[in-house]
């Protein structure tokens, strides 16, 4: 499965989200869901980052399941529609995760 076009980026996103879900990243200006509201209070920071972390893990899993059940034959696969399916399965869940996380932050 490592020869799938977006496997490595999806894996990196999922691994980077795990510390957010576990709540081990303190408020900072470099790593995590950083908005004016999340940086204002620890309680909001941890709740927002836990939710956002789960959303990014879910996004990665959407792609990884696509790669598992509908794999390409490699980087030179001539089937453009299959490559576009992979691109869509990788790229669409990410902004959806950001949108859902920002909505969640508004409700905190």
What does it look like?
The protein is mainly α and 108 residues long. The chain has one domain. It has 4 helices and no strands. α2 packs antiparallel against α4 (93-106).
Helices and strands in order, then pairings?
Blueprint: H1 7-22, H2 42-69, H3 80-91, H4 93-106
Helix pairs in contact: 1-2, 2-3, 2-4
Q: Radius of gyration, Cα only, in angstroms?
A: 16 Å
Terminal CA distance: 39 Å
Low-confidence stretches: none
H/E series, N to C?
HHHH
For the record, the count of structural domains works out to 1
Backbone structural class? mainly alpha
Q: Largest sheet at a glance?
A: none
Helix content: 55-70%
The best one-word shape is elongated
Mean pLDDT: 94
In short:
This protein has 108 residues and is an all-alpha fold. It has helices at 7-22, 42-69, 80-91, 93-106. The chain has one domain (7-106).
Pick out its properties:
108 residues; mainly alpha; 4 helices; 65% helix
